[in-house]
Amino acid sequence: MELPLETVPNFSEGRDQATIDLLAGAMGAHADLLDVHVDGDHHRSVFTLVGTEQDLAESLLAGVAYAKERIDLRGHEGAHPRIGAADVVPLVPLRPADMPQAQSAAKTIARRIADELELPVFFYGALGGGVGPAHFRRGGTEELQRRIESGEVRPDFGPLQLHPGAGGVLVGARQPLIAFNVNLRSVDVEVARAVAKTVREADGGFPGVRALGLDLPTAGLVQVSMNVEDWEAAALHEIVARIVEEANRRGAEVAGSELVGLMPAGAAAAAAGSALRIEGFDESRVLELRLLELESGAG
């Protein structure tokens, strides 16, 4: 059975509902829109869509065009780092064997964004030699432009000049990940940064975990914001347990957590099995998932 591709574009708008609705309508006209996550403190919205390679190309072109028209980074203030109005556009295969298709789609979409919308496009992940989005976001758009002019960084497609209002676009192809945030009752962002360091792979934490400590002034909280890139190697319930422990050590407590977008069923099953203390519980024990397997096998 042929599965669609997924895309999870992140746009630098989390406060203007009219723009968010326009983005949803523009992209949803070409592909199936499954989820929209909006965060005012991050000043960011994350859309989850599925479709064929062609459907997603048209969907993303429409979304990036609206972002270029309506989002101006020159007046943008948000907790989440960014280099573009349409900041990051990942193509995601729903099974590992489809990664070549996702990479092909990413290359096609990157070229069209550059050619049709005249925005510089930078590859990240496997298409970009292994560098992540943080490589480009470091120092913001002014620093990125300086690095382009010095020859340190070069767009893979498009002009050598970042768009004054819309910046550039990061495009990649990656496996499914879990974007997951844990909020702490504290007004000291250094607490969140210290806790993030304990779970982040780069500082000896969990494998495949990228983590930042961010301030949430509207909520009066701070946040450990994470991408869990290998949920089988780093279980969510184990990460949360570490955050609870490290936050308590610093005089803070966990206020709650949030999922950004969607997550693989296997990760949810593993977390449920841990919470319920069911030995060996995984997605193979979930009725609806087993029925879907039978249905796909019959197709």
Task: Give structural notes.
The chain contains 9 helices and 11 strands. It has 299 residues and is of the alpha+beta class. α2 (53-70) packs parallel to α3 and α6 crosses α7. The longest helix is centred in the middle third of the chain and has 19 residues, at 99-117. The chain is globular.
Spans of at least 5 consecutive residues with low confidence? none
Could you give me the name of the CATH homologous superfamily of the largest domain?
Formiminotransferase, N-terminal subdomain
Largest sheet: 7 strands, mixed
CATH uppermost class of the largest domain: Alpha Beta
Series of secondary-structure elements, N-terminal to C-terminal: EEHEEHEHEHHEEHEEHEHH
Number of strands: 11
Q: Quote the CATH topology of the largest domain.
A: Formiminotransferase-cyclodeaminase, Chain B, domain 1
- Please state roughly what percent of the residues sit in beta strands, choosing from under 5%, 5-15%, 15-25%, 25-35%, 35-45% or over 45%: 15-25%
- Cα(first) to Cα(last) distance is 6 Å
Rg calculated over all Cα atoms: 19 Å
Helix percentage: 25-40%
The total domain count is 3
Average pLDDT, to the nearest integer? Answer: 94
Morphology: globular
